[in-house]
# Entry
Amino acid sequence: MTLCRKGATEAEGPVDSGEKDSYDNNTFLENRSVDSHRFAVISEKEAIAVHEIPAQITDLTIILTIAALTTLLCKKINLPSVLGYLLAGFLTGPVVAFLPTIQDRGSVAVWSDIGVIFLMFGLGLEFSLHKLAQVGGPGFLSAGVQAAGMGGVGALLGIALGWGPMNSLFLGVMLAMSSTMITMKSVEDMGLKQASFTDLALGTLVIEDILAIFAMVILSTIAVSQSISGWALVQRLGLLLLYLALWLILGIYLVPTMMKKLRGLMNEEVLLVFSLALCFLMAILAKEIGLSTELGAFLAGSLLAGTLHAEEVEKLVTPCKNLFGAVFFVSVGFMIQPAMIWDYLGPILLLSAAAILGKLLFLTIGGLVAGKPLRMALPAAAAQTQVGEFSFIIAGLGQSLGVTGAFLYPIIVAVSVLTTFTTPFLLKLSGPLVTFLEGHLPKPWLAALDRWCQTRSREKGEGDWSLFLQGYFRSFALYGVLAVGVILLGKRLLLPLLLETFPDRSWLPQGLTCLGIYLALALLLPAMLRVRRRFFTSLWLQKVSSRVILSALMVLRLGAAVVLAAAPAVLLFQVSPLWMILAALPVIWLATHSNKIAGHYLEVEARFLANFNERKLAERFREEEGNVHQWLTEQLYVATLACPTDYVQAGKSLKELNWGRRDHIQIIQIWRAGRHWNVPEGYWVVQGGDRLVVMGSPRQVENFCRQQAKDGVVQVSGLTTLRQYVSEQESGERTGQLLCYGICLDKTMPQVGKSVRDSGIKTDWSAILIGLERNYLPIPTPDPSLALRAGDLLWVMGSQEMAAKLLALGLLD
# Structure
């Protein structure tokens, strides 16, 4: 290698090898001298900048130091820590000059936004979607009454103050918004987290947040057009609702499944990163589809709350939530401006009093209308008597659209701060206030309230109609939303992508998109049309009026399915809707009668239910350890029926009678002339004088007995649990013993991947499948089209012949 001196040209020649060592030393000393010189000429200002602490670190130090002192003071005098954070924000803001002031407000605003996301995520972790579904009805009623009442009060006050219609409209919506974070922080600080009213308060707040999203859509539409365009408004609201439902359904189906598959890789570090990634990803996605980041973070937490990792995630996230949550509450305290409060003192006090008293009144009324007692409704209302941070967003929306005055934002901030300070005190006074009202309200009023609460509780009882309609609308909504989502995603995402890929062949992208949509609809529409015969048959046979209602419901669902089936071709190829509807009818009929398609959507439904109830099922499994499968033998009931000698159904086989499919019961024994046959096959012919032992749920068995009584069949034994029936046989009180065993499927068994109908359980094992468990999810009397999977725990029943076959196959120890 040729070595030249630094700065020398090639003309000066190479460095001799003998000079190499001296050259290296001289070069080192020369470079060091140059570096020292360069450092010496750095200006004093630049040298200071090199060692200056970033403003963000200084600001964070100021915030945490003063917040620590103020929260300690609040704890000392038994006040919630949130008041300490608000006081710290005021002290570190621009008003108080003798204390250090925050320099970089932009960074603090970002930390505050992160704090809101963390607080909502933590809230979601404590309030699963399963729990939200339980309090959703009362929460919706309470939130609806409060939103309507406070919206009207706020609008009327704005007009009375002379602020004009648009300012008054925005003011009404802002006053109707409570703060989820403030409420739950106050409840937590006061040790009321497990109080009976907490679930009602939180359910109401979550519904309020969702209503706030739709209110923002309505306000922006009105503000832009200066009028209400009904159809455009319905379109925007419908699209938001569709996105929200589709997002939740896919989240419930995918997130727990993915976490189960990755369970072996999830240590604490990976679990924390994964959870926070999901939180922020869903917050960003929520913003992109027109929802709020707060709602997205809450839903992310709710999805994780239903998984087995929920408690560990909550423990890992709590320090982050506490840190950034403190910054959020401090940032709210920044907005306290005494001069502004003095200028608008009258309107601020008026609006604050209206918000406190109005929310207390309307939320209490809403809770009572929902059937909650006064002792629960009033404390839940007291916890929500503040104006929340959502009002800041709505005020900002009005200013950005140029339809509200500049004065409205600082006024609503002052009202929010003032009502936030009063919330903990009202919550403390709610108990004595309830006692006062119970002692001074007229006795007839209190008695009427008690009767109303009892009536609402009885209405929640699960009759045949209630259970049928729950299943009807659940499947209608679940698969209908997925079907509409598939069509929209195909048209808005898949089609543009294919058009870019095949720009010269417009028919090919349209054809591929249409094909993809119809493949998905082939699974979704049959599931949406599936008739839940468990209650349908009994309702159909009750009276003529029930048949009319049931027929109308079936026609409604069929019509919706036909429209959805015709929509892709109409949208993509502009085909005549009438011809597509006519073509869709036979296709839908064939699809609904396909056992293979039924097996696929039953698998999807089972996984969805297992994911939705994962944590609850696991908790029950732990609680009932040692007797974990008792659910099966205690949920199934048995009754004995005696057929008359002139039985009109005599001479028909069990397969022809089709009782299992029509009435969802199973014949487990037939007695004839002193002999009995266990688990009779479908070819068995029923004769007059037979005694039939039927099994099913209590309602199924009762309905079957009621129908058979019309043909002279007499019930000769009362309902007993299957567990009791089997134990009585074991004790010798009945002969012809039935046996019940649990068989766990592994991947080598021939039943895996086959439907219950084709599994051969009855022919190969001489047994009937009375239920199975999948991922802790109990599925009593499973549908014959359901495909069996490795890991399923099958509960089978039969006689000694069954036990011998299972022993021969090595399935019993």
Q: What stands out?
A: DSSP finds 33 helices and ten strands in the chain. Residues 1-42 have pLDDT under 50 and may be disordered. The first strand starts at residue 637 and ends at 642. Residues 308 and 423 are 35 Å apart (CA to CA).
